[in-house]
Amino acid sequence: MVVIEPAITKDEEGDVMTGREASDGFETASEGTDGGSDNEEQQQKQEKQNVSPPKDDSYEDASNNDELEQKALVQANDAKLEGNKLFAAAQYEEALSQYEVALQVAPNLPSFVELRSVCHANRAICFLKLGKYEDTIKECTKAIELNPSYMKALVRRGEAHEKLEHFEEAIAGKLWFNLKTILELDPSNEQAKRSIFRLEPKAAEKREQMKEEMIAKLKEMGNSLLGRFGMSTDNFKAVKDPSTGSYSISFQR
Known about the structure:
Order of helices and strands: EEHHHHHHHHHHEE
Structural class: mainly alpha
Shape: elongated
């Protein structure tokens, strides 16, 4: 009978190993596959951990907008403060430019309403000092549109109307609305009270002057027509009723 001895091999250090022991030092095909699968799973887990979360663009945009608004606010305030310094030094034209810069920098947003209103009112007082009353009224109106209860703007607009002798506008309600609004907001405002007291007789005088001018024009037109018939407006006498203020016409030869 033939006996087959197991194959004998040597390890690197010369130790003797049987064939079975020698094979234990290598991975079989099945063992290699399992190990590769584990490595792939670990690699996939590592890749998932390394993937950064998606960026929230809306949050980033909002943050950028806030930063831009804050920057604009700082720049607008700086320009306004520079305008205040120039105004205090009676450099009204230069102050106007700085307030305009502030308005250009400050966006037309709700958070900037107060600043824009103040800048318009400050431009109004500059124009008032320069004697440009129409521009004063325009700037005051812009300030009041942004802040209807802005007392200084209301007062300055009233002053500008008075400087322009807009008593006919007082009759129409524009100036009186201005003064009445001041008293509604601040019943103790002495400046508004004094203005009303001072302007009432002026308004009445202006009204009479307007009536006289109107009658003179009508008389001139009447003479041009009546002259064809040998008459004039002197043949007609206008008599004023003191109780009603109306006129009655009587013919005289």
